[in-house]
Amino acid sequence: MVKFDHNKMRKTRILLGDPHVRAAIPKTVILSASSLKQMLSTYDTVYVKPNVGALGVGVMRVRKLSANKYEWRYKLQRKHVSSITRLMSLIHSYKKSGSYLVQRGIDLMKYRGRRFDLRVVTQRRNSHDAWRVTGVLARVAAPGRIVTNGSQGASIHPYPQVFGANMSAEQTGRLKGSIDNLALRIARRYTLSYAKCIELGLDVAVDNKRRIWLLEVNTRPQIKPFTRLNNLSMYRTIMAYRGKNKGH
């Protein structure tokens, strides 16, 4: 089995070499009291998440409400504190071991009043094959949740359904084309460092201005959410690629 780096910050740095991809990556820094303060002075909302982790576990959200008031969210919990020092103390009381990241919060597009993002799967049959986008679905956050992971109650929908609630079919088609192009650029850039990589799961978001953002790169993506779609064609395509990739 090919081993890949699960360090999110290192994966991000690999992708920054492509200017087109770099423009889609929200500002991300290693968590410290000073970096958190600086990020919150620039962005009203940030996400604090483990540098190594998956399934949305350990992700917290912080919003700056006023000069000396911050809102902290984790799972279904919500607390207010009046200083960065108290905010860091709160974060440390819930964080696991290892380093954490602070990432700019994106004002995600919504479906029926709930935030959503996309899971985009890119695959190739071998390390010499061309990359292809084999699956795209939407993950709509459960009520009151700050993350869109299916393991934390998100509902799974076909992407045309959630985009269709926000735009025309023609606009949906153009947006999907842009997402596919970005996904393929990300895959090609990533394999400059990991030539044997043949599958990536990308967490992609679209904001209210229809700008596309890359939230995370997963080298061992969960594909179970694709089994929750009524149309299983994407799931079958992904599995067919995996069937040819016995060494993955």
From TrEMBL:
Cited InterPro entries: ATP-grasp (IPR011761), YheC/D (IPR026838)
Organism for this UniProt entry: Paenibacillus terricola
Protein name: YheC/YheD family protein
Keywords: ATP-binding, Nucleotide-binding
Gene3D superfamilies: ATP-grasp fold, B domain
Domain ATP-grasp: 17-243
SUPFAM superfamilies per the UniProt record, alphabetical: Glutathione synthetase ATP-binding domain-like (SSF56059)
Keyword ATP-binding: yes
